[in-house]
Design a protein that fits this description.
Blueprint: H1 10-40, H2 48-62, H3 64-71, H4 79-97, H5 108-132, H6 138-144, H7 148-173, H8 190-201, H9 204-220
């Protein structure tokens, strides 16, 4: 998909401002609750998902809209890259964490939640400013295209830990599996699907990470292009 697009209509711009504001508020709420949970109230992993799980679940599912934003040209992002990112995160949240009791206890959960909530708070606030102001303050642009450097690999590691902690429960219960015989003559193992997806994503991670560095060089390498990637 070409990154060139027509000037956004006022209706499209209003919709994107609303969408990004909602996402910003949601992920900022999760980030604040995360800090309160660990650093103010001194609670542990066992009760973390009870506190922020429902909010995380629904705001993560809401990101599915971003694939359609890219697909229909509302934003200049690559639709397939967006789909891979959204689908992978949704599988972690819906399948590995919310879907299993073991995923909720994974040491990867606080790592992933911290990285997700902080990254998304910065990302969506940047988008709101980009859509609302003639020029985004340089510090906000720098932060948007720099914060991923430590948080993206850390978040990915947290996601893998959540998958690993969840896989025993998924395998023992045949969670979301479809066994033969059935009217469609079809079988499906979510356990193997999770492993295939986790292992298959490993070689994709460096490509995604390097793509983000390329975007960083493009935006911060001397001239800031006024468009959202």
């Amino acid at each position: 998909m070409s990154t060139k697009r027509k000037e956004q209509s006022s209706g499209t711009k209003l919709y994107l401002v609303l969408y990004n504001n909602v996402q910003f508020l949601g992920w900022f709420y999760i980030f604040v609750q995360f800090l309160i949970h660990f650093f103010v109230e001194g609670k542990g992993i066992a009760s973390l998902w009870d506190r922020v799980g429902m909010v995380t679940y629904y705001f993560q599912l809401l990101t599915i809209f971003e694939f359609f934003h890219a697909l229909f040209g509302l934003v200049p992002s690559n639709a397939m890259i967006t789909l891979m990112q959204v689908f992978g995160r949704c599988m972690v949240v819906v399948g590995a964490i919310d879907g299993t009791p073991t995923g909720k206890l994974s040491p990867g959960l606080p790592i992933a939640l911290f990285c997700w909530s902080l990254t998304e708070t910065v990302r969506y606030s940047y988008y709101v400013l980009h859509l609302s102001l003639p020029k985004v303050p340089h510090f906000m642009t720098w932060l948007r295209y720099t914060i991923f450097v430590p948080l993206y690999p850390a978040g990915f590691f947290g996601e893998l830990l959540c998958f690993y902690w969840a896989q025993s429960y998924i395998g023992e219960t045949d969670m979301w599996g479809i066994s033969m015989p059935n009217r469609y003559n079809f079988t499906f193992s979510f356990f193997y699907f999770v492993w295939i997806m986790a292992v298959g994503y490993l070689p994709l991670f460096p490509q995604m990470y390097l793509h983000m560095f390329a975007q960083r060089r493009k935006i911060l390498g001397g001239r800031i292009e006024q468009k959202v990637q």
